[in-house]
Amino acid sequence: MPGCFKRTLFALVSALSFVSFILITVAMASQNWMSGKILCKTGAELVNATDPELVKFIGDIHYGIFRGGKVRQCGLGGRRSKFTIFPHMVKKLNTALHMMIILFLCVAMSFALVSLGFCILNAIKVPYRAIKGPWGLCLWNIIAGGFAALAVTSFMAAVRLHHLTERIANFQENVFQFVILEEQYECSFWLCVASATTHAVNLLLIAISAIRFPKLKTKTEEANVTAEDIMY
Known about the structure:
By secondary structure, this protein is α+β, with helices and mostly antiparallel strands. It is built from seven helices and five strands; from the N terminus they run αβαβββαααβαα. The longest helix is centred in the middle third of the chain and has 30 residues, at 95-124.
């Protein structure tokens, strides 16, 4: 059986792996990945709006991996609307990149559960194969954390390089054109960052568990045997 110190570390790694799984699940289920300010460029140009009047043409947008919503401000008051990315909007986006983000998140969730299972296995019994020892745990956490990091990086690439927010804001807008004034990553995005960070912490804990600490041995006093002791 593993020592008490190692069992404690494996239990902590198991808890962090489960937390990572929960973080990604919550991030995928929510719609708070990105928020921003959108300017109704067409409406502002029609009335030749100046700086004080541009407030009437600035709306809001927020979205996640699967759905979102926006407030259109085109001079006639705010109009709220909700949208879903699947099945129609995704065709106007970078479909391959968006599907890669979802795939990376699913793989990260799966290997977080694999890491959880093998951590429990290492905590209750002595590993009899390398894949079930510290090196195996490192492998599962590297894969889970790596795919979570890839999902975060891919989403940033979609926002910055492929103008994801602008494409979503202008989806099915035949009359008005919207310009992005401000973008901000929201809590769901940072949950995925936290998920990748938990696996980095797991790697540190696993490395600590592989350290062999010297055992403290008490010195036994040498018994002085005399001739009288032998006689009795």
